[in-house]
Write the structure tokens for this entry.
Amino acid sequence: MSLRQALWILVLLLLLLAGWQFLRAVWLSRDPMSPPEATAASATAPGQQVVAAVAAGEEDDGEGFDHAPRLNAATADSAAGNEPEAFRSTLETQRLRRLLDGQQALVDRQRAEIETLQAEVAGLRQQLEESLHAQSPQSMASPEYAEATRLAEQGLDAEEIAARCGISIAEAGLLVSLARSGGRQ
């Protein structure tokens, strides 16, 4: 056998090996668990898998699904003999409890926010009522007469108010009489 024939046989064997690896990879992609893992998983009970996961210290993946719930020793012993349906119901119960806890926390936050808003509305309502009671007829007057009203409340006579503010003596007299009648009330 020549060197050339030996090389052709070697290339043929490498091609066969590559084809075998390709077929094996395709076969493994169809089956989610490789044969050694499948036999190991079927040999252990669901409760034992949980105990093994807890003993291994596996952490939650943060997606809200607890793949291996944490069990204490008493629960682990009782879970070892349970059927898969009981294990699924335990997982579902834990998931529902987490959802319920989240909803309860949300309700608590909303109640606190509602109480804060109610207190704020009560304060604003009180401020509004106080400001409405504090407003006198003179303060509700036109802004152009605000200074004249202030001077009339200070006790100046109509001629002085008319001279300072640039309004007629009749208007100033009216503001003086309003200021005097408002002081009596």
Observations:
- The chain has three domains: 1-43, 45-109, 135-184.
- The helical segments are 3-30, 35-43, 46-56, 73-80, 84-134, 146-154, 158-165, 169-184.
- Residues 34-56 have pLDDT under 50 and may be disordered.
- The two ends are 132 Å apart (CA to CA).
